[in-house]
Design a protein that fits this description.
Aspartate Aminotransferase, domain 1, aminotransferase, Aspartate Aminotransferase, domain 2, 2 domains, 15 helices, binds pyridoxal-5'-phosphate, seven-stranded mixed beta sheet, PLP-dependent aspartate aminotransferase family protein, five-stranded mixed beta sheet, alpha/beta
């Protein structure tokens, strides 16, 4: 019997959940594009419906393509089980809906993806869930926010877009001491670069739209955790809420993950070089990249992450106008939100993703007018730097 747990990351990414089709021998398993399933007899159907025998029930529950993808992701994250959703937000929302009930309290990082604030403030608060936002890199802030009804801590590390790092091991000790569940959004790192479950987290969530798929051609999300949480806590909810993912999307993400380790190596090697280039550039005020010695939490990054990721935030000298000029002058690098694609993307939070926030609030959370975020792709490094160079020169 093959011991999958002992396989290396590349092998897991390629082989787990990827078996030839048992009916035809097709090397690549087909996309099971069906809404429902036929049974031999009412007796067999009965066993499947009561869980006595494994079988497929209905397209809103799961599909064979989805289950193959879930096996692959669970193996890479080192989790017992995984559930895939129609988007990263659906994954985050379902994880919290399974963990919380009216009257509970959540502590959430104060720098997280905008949709996560929206979920807590616009959706869960009206259902009676209280939330406090704190700097989760400081345990004393978590202690201050703790209430008798606190049930969950949600962190994103590195956080979007300031790249602030939270010590997962430390926060997990705090959570265990107070009987709280720790949810970590691992989107920026991927399981290749950071394994929150090994560091003590209970649940990992991802926007699979990003590096897991890696090719910018679908939207998906995942939750990884214990078998009990995924099967009892989560699966029940998903089927009722209907936040399902299509078999075609599962196929795309599954195919994308096969090259995740290779892509991540190229992403992080390129990112380090771009960060060094930017740090030395006279038109750049400061660079935020966990791999740079100048990054305030560089030592923690070295301890917690296998690589420093491929997101770089930097401040252009001259503020809003100059940052916008830089973005508008680029020729190969695309101006687009999202991240983790094979191609390099740039975004200017003050004019795009964070434009609707009040200016003072935005600046207080470190998102200055001149801040620009790069998601470094896997192109040849010379071409990324040449494009940035010509854009700076034209400014
Ligand atoms: C860190 C992080 N988490 C979650 C999400 C939400 O994912 P999705 O867009 O797949 O719903 C995003 C999206 O950008 C993100 O950056």
């Amino acid at each position: 019997m093959t011991n999958i747990e002992k396989w290396g990351e590349n092998t897991k990414a390629v082989h787990v959940g990827s078996k030839p089709c048992p009916a035809t021998g097709a090397l690549v398993s087909p996309i099971y594009q069906t809404s429902t399933y036929a049974y031999e007899s009412t007796e067999e159907a009965g066993k499947i419906f009561t869980g006595e025998k494994f079988g497929y029930l209905y397209g809103r529950d799961h599909s064979p393509t989805e289950i193959q993808l879930e096996e692959k992701i669970a193996a890479l994250e080192g989790g017992e089980a995984c559930k895939v959703f129609g988007s990263g937000m659906a994954a985050i929302a379902n994880a919290h809906m399974a963990l919380l009930k009216a009257g509970d309290h959540v502590i959430c990082g104060d720098v997280v993806y905008g949709g996560t604030y929206g979920l807590f403030d616009k959706m869960l608060r009206p259902f009676g869930v209280d939330v406090t936002y704190v700097d989760t890199s400081k345990i004393e802030e978590l202690e201050k926010a703790l209430k008798p009804n606190t049930k969950v801590v949600h962190i994103e590390t590195p956080a979007n877009p300031t790249l602030r790092i939270t010590d997962i091991k430390e926060v997990s000790k705090f959570c265990k001491a107070h009987n709280l569940s720790l949810v970590v959004d691992n989107t920026f790192m991927t399981p290749y670069l950071q394994k929150p479950l090994e560091l003590g987290a209970d649940i990992v969530v991802h926007s699979a739209t990003k590096y897991l798929n890696g090719h910018g051609d679908c939207i998906a999300g995942v939750v990884v955790g214990s078998k009990e949480f995924i099967e009892k806590g989560l699966h029940e909810g998903v089927t009722k809420i209907g936040a399902l993912v299509s078999p075609f999307t599962c196929f795309l993400v599954k195919r994308g993950i096969q090259t995740l380790p290779l892509r991540m190596e190229q992403h992080i090697n390129n990112a380090m070089k771009v960060a060094e280039y930017l740090e030395a550039h006279p038109k750049v005020e400061k660079v935020l990249y966990p791999g740079l010695k100048s990054f305030p939490q560089h030592e923690l990054a070295k301890k917690q992450m296998k690589g420093f990721g491929a997101l770089i935030s930097f401040e252009v000298k001259g503020g809003l106008d100059k940052a916008r000029q830089l973005c508008d002058n680029l020729e190969m690098i695309e101006l687009a939100v999202s991240l983790g694609d094979v191609g390099t993307l740039i975004e200017h939070p003050a004019s795009m993703t964070h434009k609707s926030l009040p200016v003072e609030e935005r600046r207080a959370s470190g998102i200055t007018d001149g801040l620009v975020r790069l998601s470094i792709g896997i192109e040849n490094i010379e071409d990324i730097i040449t494009d940035l160079d010509q854009a700076f020169d034209k400014m």
